[in-house]
Amino acid sequence: MNIIPFDDRDGYIWMNGEMKPWRECKSHVISHGLHYASLVFEGERAYNGKIFKSLDHTKRLFNSANILDFTIPWKMEEIEEIKVELLNEMKLSNSYVRAFAWRGSEMIAVSAQHTKIHVAVAVWEWPSYFDPEAKMRGIKLDISNWRRPPENCAPVHAKAAGLYMICTLAKHEAEKKGFDDTLMLSHDGLIAEATGANIFFRMSDGKVHTPLPKTFLNGITRKTIIQLLQNEGIEVLERDINLDELENVTECFLTGTAAEVTPVGRIAEFEFKPSNLCKKIMGQYSDLVRG
Ligand code: PMP
Predict the structure, then answer these.
(1) Is the pLDDT assigned to residue 24 strictly greater than 90?
(2) Looking at ligand 1, which residue's alpha carbon is closest to its atom 12?
(3) Does the predicted model carry a pTM greater than 0.85?
(4) What secondary structure letter does DSSP report for 47?
(5) Is the pLDDT at 131 greater than 70, yes or no?
(6) How many angstroms separate the Cα of 78 from the Cα of each of 17, 58, 153, 158?
(7) Most C-beta atoms within 10 A of its C-beta, which of 91, 160, 202, 242?
(8) What proportions of the chain, in percent to the nearest 5, are helix, strand and coil?
(9) How confident is the model over 108-133, as a mean pLDDT?
(10) Hey, is 159 helix, strand or coil?
(11) Is 106 helix (H, G, I), strand (E, B) or coil?
(12) How much distance in Å is there from the Cα of 219 to the middle of ligand 1?
């Protein structure tokens, strides 16, 4: 694959108060974030120079840090300003924005009370793979054997590095079988989400159903899409959804900052035809983010 490694790029990253050359932004190999997954992050997108729901992402970053029992040593307004400054510095108007915070090297043990909290923001080009025709064919999802842990077994409402361990394993398992992504169930067998995006179904009752975010992120895109659907007069039911209900699904799509609105054409042996609803919601979301 022809991807430029992320440690070998030009430009700047804002790190701990400084706009530093990209290649100089290093963290020591013995750091708590790396060894114990004490890292929280955000994935955001800028469209035409403006980050969609920037403040919501910053709030979630701070909340994720609190859930992991640390405090980001900056004000939310400062992070908001840094993101804008960095987009200008990098001369990127359509891009992905990654803000993150992690525990440093002062303590390498389970207890990490006295670690320094590091914060960085990076932006890079990530084209919105927006070929609506290709997307309308719908991606193929497997059903993973990996499940989302319950709320009392992991900080499931934080966007925290450690939770992505099972997502990577689940996605690799699916890719090896020729799928694009995979559907993850929650610990108790309910439909949860894909590995990096929330899921919506249009069912034979004409309504849109989406799982309750009890064991996974209540995505910023998910909330936006629920609002868009309701504005269209479409009823949205947030509820527990079982796998055997897939036979009643007529359309299915994923939502997420990176995924935007991505139609799903198949989940395991269940096939759907992305149609009017997917098209409408993709169009509306695209218009909304470009403001
Ligand atoms: N679930 C997971 C596991 C994710 O990584 C993401 C992307 N942040 C989402 C859902 C969707 O969240 P959002 O719409 O806020 O990007």
Answers:
(1) yes
(2) 219
(3) yes
(4) E
(5) no
(6) 10, 10, 33, 21
(7) 202
(8) 30, 30, 40
(9) 88
(10) coil
(11) coil
(12) 5
